[in-house]
Amino acid sequence: MVEAQKIAAFCTQCRSRCGCVAVVEGGRLLRVDPLPDHPTGQALCPKGRAAPELVYHPERVMRPLRRTQPKGAADPGWKPVSWDEALAEIATRLSAIRATHGAEQVAFSVTTPSGSHISDSISWIERFIRAYGSPNTIYGTEICNWHKDYASRFTYGHDIGTPDFANTDCVVLWGNNPAATWLARQVEIQKGLKRGARMIVVDPRPTALAKRATQWLRVRPGTDQAVALGLANLLVSSGRFDQDFVAAWTNASLLVRADTGRFLRESDLRAAGRSDILYSHAGEGGGLLPLDRSGKETEGTPVLRWHGTIETLSGPVLCHTALELFARAAAEYPPERVADVSGIEPGDLAKAADIIAGAKSVAYYAWNGVGQSVTATQTDRAISILYALTGSYGREGGNVPGGAAPFVDISGQDLLSAAQRDKALGLAERPLGPGLQGWVTARDVYKAVLTKAPYPLRALVSFGTNLLVSQPDTEMARKALSALEFHVHADFFINATACYADIILPAATSWEREGLRTGFDGSLEGLRHVQLRPPVVAPVGEARSDTDIVMGLAAGLGLGDRMFDLDADRGHDAALARTGLTVGMLRASPAGVRVDGTAQLDGQSLAHDGHPRGYPTPTGKIEIYSERLMLSGYRPIPALDVGDLSSAEAGYPLRLGSAKSVAYCHSQHRNIGSLRRLVPDPIVEMSPEDAAARSVSHGDWVRISTRSGDAVARAAIVPGLASGAVFGQHGWWIEGGEGTPYDRSHPLAANLNSAIGTDRADPVSGSIPLRCSWCQVAKISFEPPSV
Fold it and tell me: Which residues form the signal peptide (predicted)?
């Protein structure tokens, strides 16, 4: 009898990246167990435990496949081909398009590294795309991580940071339910609660954490910005914020000209003045105080709130401090108005403000609940400024930016020329948006395919995506996918989108390939952990890792010199170079190693060129007022137009959002037996009041309708859910059981995203209202056939 091997690993089924032990016998993966000594290894969710079902699923793509029938045919006529044939054909087609038309006429589509196995290869895929020269990658960042990772930089200069939940005095979860999406974070929150931390949850749904919260703010979908401004108003108007931190490390005291919206500069006051010296004011009886943006402070104490007239070269100009302008914007949201807009009672808002004001430290996280809206960027701005007022950013018990070691990014940002970067679809309309990184929206790609403007989009290469289901504009997507000259799709299965491809490549799961993880960001301690997970079993069939796939394509396109000479070890060693670690060292310690460093607390205070480092923003401070946004035509202070938030669309009285299930991640896993048994059908959560008004009972089939489309689901009556709000589940594309409304003849009838409109979008990022549309729900007559 062969003794089972136990191989230290980590799971990649979601952002948690839980440490685990893969149990292998006779070369076959038997199960996956927790690895308690790992910083994320205390528990595993059902997705992680279902790993063997995924690896050995009978529907896995086993060999490269080529289409032999026209697109639109009932049977694509998939024909197995060799890897050499497939890679040669792809390289030839991509090379010809680049040579004749330009690399921008090939788009790429990459699934989320936060919730899929592609996290092991994402840097390599992005490096290949940039080496090839395309500025057009559908990455979904505008509906996933834009606000917390990039919009936050308009305020902090950094991303949202890693929340130190285990050591905080106040946990704030805003549109984020880690119990369903990030198990390692859930563990850290439990540590903090056991220490006595209080918790605020801002969420329309009565999640398990909302029920445990010290204060649950049951917000109406899409109105989070009003709540953030309302809380900030209570803190600023009462003076209950960290005034020392705000004075030292934000641009609260800087003066803003009322005529131009720009900061007051020395060049405004004298002909030979410098434009990089800005001004604060000393208040009554005082005068102007210059601030050199190198970080050099001058004598005098600036006031945080002031307005008055300053004599400039162009005459007297009214000026306000940045905090004065923000305070006035926040004052537009007294508790009573917040209640009208968001549904949160004034007393509940006041209690939440009291908790924040009384906490020595605050750690928070906000995710899709606030990011998937048409106000995503400014909502993040409002939340980030509110958080800056606590003084916790970058401190123990707060959110700490950066990692524990200086890892090198090998995703190849430097490989894409400025000229190519400027060709990103949608960048002209959203000049500060994701297009700056070469990340474009799916609908911009569809439009370029169908209208050939601003230039034709001829080919698409996809890594694990399912655009028909994970994005709206389903019918436009069908037309665009059918019209492409060439389409390649790499994946585990032939999903709804892969059916339109010309070539399908079999991708290996993370259990079948090596994977490097430089820090586990569930906690500050986890950031110190570095691990090179070995392949625990051999690839099934002829599956290859995504890294090997792009290496093969790079070889065919002559890009080897830009891909570390096609040597993954060289690339990984480059990523580790500043830490003193090597791939060889990590292979000798498969459970991972801990780096000597730690996430830097109070990093802005560290000396740099003889002055405090500050923040990587234009003013070197956390930016309450963003001149950068103003100069691009956006509001420098978050302010909300509540017109379309408070009035329902005619015929569509319910606010439609969506929520994730612990059993699934996006459009994955619904063909996994054990997970499907947990959630066999799509559901839509409704309050008892809304269900009763429509004669809907628990388990009834209903139709969710919007101006843009509809989808079917089973009703789930949820006591405590905010009245007027309903929550569906996106990602359904596998047919239901015999006789369901989304059976084999209509598998996409349950596709919630087909009901989401994209006519309105966040003007900075392009985010769309996946969590805040208007809908109607009606019971449908449906009788499954008798057995």
Answer: none
